[in-house]
Amino acid sequence: SKSSNASWPPEFQPGVPWKGIPNIDP
Amino acid sequence: QEPLTASMLAAAPPQEQKQMLGERLYPLIHAMHPSLAGKITGMLLEIDNSELLLMLESPESLHSKIEEAVAVLQVHQMSEVSHKSN
Fold first, then answer.
1. Confidence check on the interface: ipTM exceeds 0.85, yes or no
2. Residue of chain A minimizing CA distance to B14
3. Nearest CA to CA, how far is B51 from chain A (Å)?
4. pLDDT by residue for chain B (86 residues), tens digit each?
């Protein structure tokens, strides 16, 4: 469902492995 | 810290590439918008890696992109607040 968008955008934290963008096709 | 290059990025796995770009972008964004830096960086990381590299080399284009992201973020937050208050 695209109606629940509350967690957007994913927050980047320095030193923490970035996992904000899952499964992007090239 | 040495500048990030396309070949350095290419040598890393895709997830690591975003991490490397984020680590470079975050301090620059934090200097402009300390309270929003994490979210702005997260938004900018949705952009193509090659474009992010160009932005790291060109402060002007980075700044305009940051302002763009802040505007989008503010509209998003306002719509969320009005949504919750209803």
1. no
2. A24
3. 15
4. 788 999 999 999 988 999 999 999 999 999 999 999 999 999 999 999 999 999 999 999 999 999 999 999 999 988 888 877 76
